[in-house]
Automatic annotation (TrEMBL):
The chain crosses the membrane at residues 79-96, 108-128, 134-155, 175-194, 248-269, 276-296, 302-322. The lineage of its organism: Bacteria, Pseudomonadati, Pseudomonadota, Betaproteobacteria, Burkholderiales. It comes from Limnobacter humi. This is COX15/CtaA family protein. Keywords: Cell membrane, Disulfide bond, Heme biosynthesis, Iron, Membrane, Metal-binding, Oxidoreductase, Transmembrane, Transmembrane helix. It is found in: Membrane.
Length: 337
């Protein structure tokens, strides 16, 4: 397989893995196998069937975090993640061996290996530390980071050769694109914090929240990083007002993201040759907003919640594409690069 195709395959696989991870988390299967890397020390849930059956009996039925279906969901996610790690290692090896042919530095591909190793550690800690919000959110950030780096590496392989430099974009447009990427990254982190704290269902109406445009909120413990799931740092239950603060902050973040990206899209539209990028930004942003509202209105259906995670990943990819295209005038790729 060529380097270009291998990077493309890894990028698409990472996107799918992010959505699968969301499905595992949102279907309450994150502790389907409460140890790591195996399942009760076994390679597959089938081999651990006796241990799982004992755990199901102890928890009083399949409604708890452990069951055969949940164990399979968790382990399939681990299998695919492990395979992706091997693919990324292969990319790094190929990047070094073909660095003269590709006319590219292998540093980015090498850095990806380090990020994947860290992501694997977060995956292990997610289970062994019993779904601590900070760890689970860190795992999401790691997955999105892998996707972002792979996207940039893929773009380096797919940018067509140019015989002339493209028009030089204004510095304002470049900074707008960077700001857009920054606010999207921040919003993804906020969204992860909402999901890992199970705060998505605390507001079931829109555009209001609990019947108010400014509901009762408590920020003292809402964004405290070092704590257990559903608890304050001193071990008390996290109250509804704290969960509301988490949810509502994400909504406010969505307004900021929309304002910045629409400003960026308008600037792109007014720039010759950048209209297609503007349409991509507006299209993905509109889709993501619609899915976010739908999750509230329809009370977080699993399929829509998973798609909303995928929409966040797609929005990240879109902003990386915009930034890459605006930066591409600095280096004109050679044919086949």
């Amino acid at each position: 397989m060529s380097f270009k195709r291998l990077v493309m395959f890894a990028t698409v696989l990472t996107f799918g893995l992010i959505m699968l991870g969301a499905y595992v988390r949102l279907s309450d299967a994150g502790l389907g196998c409460p140890d790591w890397p195996g399942c009760y020390g076994k390679l597959t849930p089938s081999h651990a069937a006796a241990d799982i059956a004992a755990a199901v009996q102890e928890q009083g039925g399949d409604h708890g975090p452990v069951s055969i279906p949940k164990a399979w969901k968790e382990m399939v996610h681990r299998y695919i993640a492990s395979f992706l790690g091997l693919v990324i290692i292969s990319i790094a090896v190929m990047a070094w061996r073909k660095r003269h042919e590709l006319r590219q530095s292998p540093v980015l591909a090498t850095a990806l290996v380090g990020v994947v190793c860290l992501q694997g550690a977060f995956g292990a800690w997610t289970v062994t530390l019993l779904l601590k919000p900070a760890i689970v959110t860190g795992h999401l950030i790691g997955g999105m980071s892998v996707l972002g780096l792979l996207t940039w590496l893929w773009l380096r392989q797919t940018t067509p050769a140019r015989t002339v430099s493209p028009p030089r974009d204004s510095q304002r447009l470049v900074w707008l694109a960077r700001a857009g990427l920054l606010v999207v990254c921040a919003q993804i982190i906020l969204g992860g914090w909402v999901s890992t704290n199970y705060a998505a269902v605390v507001c079931t109406d829109f555009p209001t929240c609990q019947g108010s445009y400014w509901p009762t909120m408590e920020f003292n413990h809402a964004f405290h990083i070092v704590r257990e799931l559903g608890e304050t740092p001193d071990g008390q239950l996290l109250n509804v007002s704290s969960l509301t603060a988490i949810h509502f902050t994400h909504r406010m973040g969505a307004i900021v993201v929309t304002a910045v990206l629409l400003t960026l899209a308008l600037a792109l539209w007014r720039t010759p040759g950048r209209q297609a990028l503007a349409l991509k930004v507006v299209g993905v942003l509109t889709l993501q907003i619609a899915m976010g509202i739908g999750n509230v209105v329809f009370h977080l259906p699993l399929w829509l919640a998973v798609l909303h995670n995928g929409g966040a990943a797609l929005l990240l990819v879109t902003l990386i594409l915009v930034n890459y295209r605006l930066a591409s005038h600095r280096v004109i790729p050679h044919a086949g690069a």
